[in-house]
Amino acid sequence: MPLLIGVDEAGYGPNLGPLVIAATVWHVPRLPHADLYETLGSGVSRDAAQAAASGRVAIADSKLLYQPQRGLADLERNVIAALMACDLLRPSFHALLAAVESTAIWERSHSTTPSRRKRTKFAGMIPWHEAHDESLPVAAEPRDCADGAKALTAASAQAQVELIGIRVAIVQPERFNDLVDAHDGKGTALSETTLNLVAEVLARLPPEPTRIVCDKHGGRNRYLELLQGRFGDDLVEVRREGREASEYRWGPAERRVEICFRTCGEQFLPAALASMAAKYVRELSMRAFNAFWQAELPALRPTAGYPGDAERFRRDIRAVQRRLGIPDRVLWRNR
Asked: Could you give the number of structural domains in the chain?
């Protein structure tokens, strides 16, 4: 069956915590396919309140489903429902990472331009992840999650559509800094890591016609060189390049891949769910991060990691960071 893939990120701007890129993968009867919001309407809504009231799943830009003052429950209910629908829900944070985390960040973007720095002893499982695990869900009601999963599964079956996977690439600060240094900029680091994730997802799937939608990477309009470098076995054809959207394709008809980078990519349901999954994993990661430091400093005010407050947090933990021997590069994203 043809495939629809949506890709989005969370945490591109902060100084603390990971950048998370997510992809969601769907089987559909044919390409081009109708808007999934229409075909899955009996089980999906863009509005969280309407979805909760009717037992459906809310799928929308994560910014619409998560606000710090409202807490994690709205976002979590709907992400966990989707994870349940594709049999990826796990009982804890660590187990979930084991099920969905990609190895894409360690592939071409690293091996072709290796960092000359000595790797720190914290490479891999960083201390705040290693020290912190928690049962899922952390805020949503399990029954509400299950109701949403049932609604999504039923609507999918009726439409002959199937959510078959969710995959995330988690780029922790030290790795982020390596990539930015290697590519001389965070924009290219984002694009390279995104395409590595896409390549990993495609490698796991049978060669079917595939449509991929990614939210645009900042102001970048041209992706041909990056695509040709990553998918060089086929000639990549430019369909169009512009401010609203840039589209490309490669491969023979029976396994043709089409990819579009577009503004407001989260209007495409698979990309919206990717936005939600990326945000959820980042928020779980920040819970672990804050819990680690608050265990050392109980009065410490938690942070979301964004500029301004991140500087305050960094000052507050400086003495403990030195005592624990945690290098700045493991903690702080330089751009």
From this structure: 1
